[in-house]
Structures are given as structure tokens and as C-alpha cells.
Specification:
This protein is of the alpha+beta class. It contains 15 helices and eight strands. The C terminus is likely disordered.
Length: 390
Amino acid sequence: MVGLPEAARGFFYVAIVAAVAAAAVSSTASTAHTRWSFFLALLLGGAVAQVFATQTPGNQVFHTGIAFSVATALVLPPQLVVVVCVAQHLPEWLRQRYPWFIQSFNIANVVLSGLAAWSVRAAFARDGVHMTASATTSDVLVAGAAAVTFVLVNHALLARMLRLARGQDLSVSGLFSLDGLIADCVVAAVGIGVTFMLLHSWALVVVAALPLVLIQRVLALPTLREQAFSDHKTGLLNSRGIDQPARNEYARARRAGRPLSVLLCDVDDLREINNRFGHLEGDAALTNVAAAFRSELREYDLCARFGGDEFLVVLPETTEAEAILVAKRVQSWLAEHPLPTRHGTVAVGVSIGTASLEEGEMQIGEVIARADAAMYTEKRTGGRSFLTVG
């Protein structure tokens, strides 16, 4: 739990204790009329769904396994709700290798949410409303109330943890935004469909669960697109990712008669860093350069690892004189933030060429070519290498 704030640690322990206590209390319920085939089907379906979890903005993970957790709360006794909620996370844990406290909190969250949903169903069952294959209006309303309870409890617990652990308020996490609630409520609604299909016919369960495949793929597409346009080592854009945005900025500058500048940067002595300290330190050097750009560039500037040890920066609304100042700030940041290694520190330097939009140029590639020539001129005249070991 290194790096987890003290308040978040306290909430983590409260959630774990609450989940264990609720599971212990629920263990006394009777399993005499349990449909064990339902248990196995929901356990398998939930485990498969969890394996295909999708990363969403805000560094959160979207689970279609919610559908099977909700279905479990609607048709199984509470102790088996606990078993399914815990066991369906194990394949994901083995695959993703999340830190133990993150996965433990996720499991506790789902257990508490599942038992809360089961409690809603059980309360109505005492009044004679039971889940049946006929799916009466009363059955559907009770199932809907249980599903909504699951989603609200799940989001409330996660929102609190994100607030304590990462400082994210509700506006940042989006857990109680309309989109955030709709996404999980739709998946929970699929769980209701799975429940009644399971009670009616095994063959219909597959049909009811198929929308989960579509939901998972739709949510995965933005992530796949981001990965295609990002450099995995630095987190910046790659050459493909910066291409169209750079063209758009160039076209806007030409159309509006506004300044635009380009920086082309080459990491000094990266080969020597790799040879002396290893390729992992070379990757760390690239990450350090990326950090310099993040520190010194504006939010709307474009920055990419252009290839190998080269970085491309597009600066809208920037004259060449202003671009030179940006380049100097980047070089100064790197000089002030040396890279720690096992053998001391390495102050990573970069050679930077600048160029600005000129009359008569028809595409941004011409500006980049001039910046490239300026960068190599700087390297030949000594560059800005700060390679030192101490």
C-alpha cells in the first residue's frame, strides 16, 4: 500500500471489514433450494466477462461482469453471491497483476454491492414477490430496484476511494455523471435479462448476454485508437498520432495568417547512455525528455516522439523567437532534473532545431524539414549535451 494516503488506507480497511462481516452474516442462509447449475453458469460467465475488462478515461476499469453479479444477486442465496463476486475476479487478478490492495478493494466493493442488491430482492421476497420465469411486472420492478441498488452502492464506494486515494472529486471521476450511471445501469439491465432467460430457458441466456460483447467492444475502441496513436514508452503521441493534428494546425495558421513554429529535438548521446547504462536507462532518458516537454509546453501544444530519439513539437500561435525560448526552457529543465541511475545521475541533453511558418510553403513538412536542418546544425556545432555522471 505504498503511496496510498492514510485516509484512503482507513477507508480500505473499513470496506474490507464490512465485506467480511456481511459475508459472515450471510453464510447462515439456507441453500436448500439452490439451483447449482445457475451458480456454475453465472460464475463462469462472470469470470469470462471480468477477463475482458476495458480501461476507460480516468484510469478506471469498466467491467461487464456487473451483469452476472446482478443476476447472481437475483437468483442465488447470499453466500453464493459472495462466492461469485470473489471468484469471478480471480482470473482478472492473475491476468492483470494489479496491486493486491486495489484488487482486494474491488472485490470488497462488488461483494457489498451484490449483497445490497440481494437484500433488496430478499425484502420483496418476504412480501411474496419472487423471481419467476413468467417475469411479471412486479418481478421486473424488483429486479430493477436491486440492479439500481448494486450500481449506486458500487459507484458510491468507488467514488469515495478515488476521492481519498487520488483526490478525484465526482466531476473528475464521472461516476455519478449521467453517462457514468447509464453505462453501468445498461450492463445491470442485461443482467436482469440474463436472470429471466436463465429461469426460462438455457438457450436464451446466450442471446441475452450477447449485448455484453457489443458493449465491451464499443468501450474498447477509444482505448485501441489511443494506443494506435500513442508512444508506449513516453505516453506522448507517435508520428501517426501527430500527423493530422499538425496538418490541421498548419492549415489554420495559413488560413488565419497566424504564427506557427516547430521544434525538432534529438536526444544527445542516447546511444552512449544505452551502451554505458543499459537500454532500460535509455528508455528512462526518453521518459525524462517527455517529462520536460510536459512541464514546459502549453496544453494545446502538440508533442510526439517522432521516431527513435527524435521528438517533434508543434507550437500554434508562436513566433520563432518565442519557440527558441521554449527550447531553452526545455533544455534548462533537463539540466536541472538529471536522471538517476545505479551509477549516479545522468543529465540528459537535447539538441533542438526551430523553424516557423514562412510565405510560400504549402505543407507543414517543409517547416519540419527546416527545423530538422537547424537541429543537425546545432548538433554539429556542439549541441546541448549534458551527459554527466556523479
